[in-house]
Each structure stands twice: as C-alpha cells, then as structure tokens.
Specification:
Layout (H helix, E strand, L loop, with lengths): L1 H29 L4 E11 L3 E6 L10 E6 L13 E9 L2 E9 L3
Antiparallel strand pairs: 1-2, 1-4, 2-3, 4-5
C-alpha cells in the first residue's frame, strides 16, 4: 500500500510539472513579436544580410542611418542597389531581420 501511495504521489507531481511547462510554453508562443515598417534605399544585397539606408524610425528611437538587416530563410528575392523600398522587420537574436521588402510604388 505504501508503494502505491508513493507511486500516486510521484505521478501527481510529475503531471503538475508537465502542465506548468505546457502553460509556460503556450504563453511564450502567444506573445506578439513587434513588426516595424519603414521606407529606405537598398545599399547592398547579400544572401545573409541586406544593407538599407532608412529615415528615422520613431518607434525605436532610431535616427536616419544605414544598417544591415538579417535575411530570413529562405532569403527574400534580391533587389538592386539604389532601389527605393518599403520594408518590414522584427527584432531577433543577433539583430533585426527583414520580414518583407518591396520596391516602392512612388
């Protein structure tokens, strides 16, 4: 009988740990990742990074600058240097990653 009580107790402890872990994972997955939008000009295009000159981005307190954005995988289709663009990006480990980019229709 003592072994049965011990087994039930261990099972209950394990199931509560699993439930807590599942809840924590669910909450993490449901967090919204901020996506930012801007306009700019392509300075250089590579398989891993795209260099863009952009105006100030107030949402991030960024001044106008030229910076590298990480490519998603698979990489976005290339645009020529000098192309005016509209783009979206998000923060990821290691920097900021493009989520979309297209030539401006201006």
């Amino acid at each position: 009988m003592r072994n049965l009580i011990t087994a039930v107790f261990i099972s209950l402890m394990f199931s509560s740990f699993v439930s807590a872990a599942e809840m924590q994972h669910h909450q993490h997955a449901s967090q919204d990742v901020a996506v930012y939008h801007s306009k700019g000009t392509v300075k250089a295009w590579g398989e891993q990074k795209v260099s863009l000159a952009h105006p100030a981005i107030p949402a991030l307190n960024w001044p106008p600058m030229t910076m590298n954005f990480l490519q998603p995988q698979p990489p976005l289709p290339a645009l020529a240097a000098g192309t005016a663009v509209e783009f979206s990006f998000r923060q990821v480990d290691g920097g900021y990653q493009l989520t979309a980019i297209r030539a401006s229709q201006d």
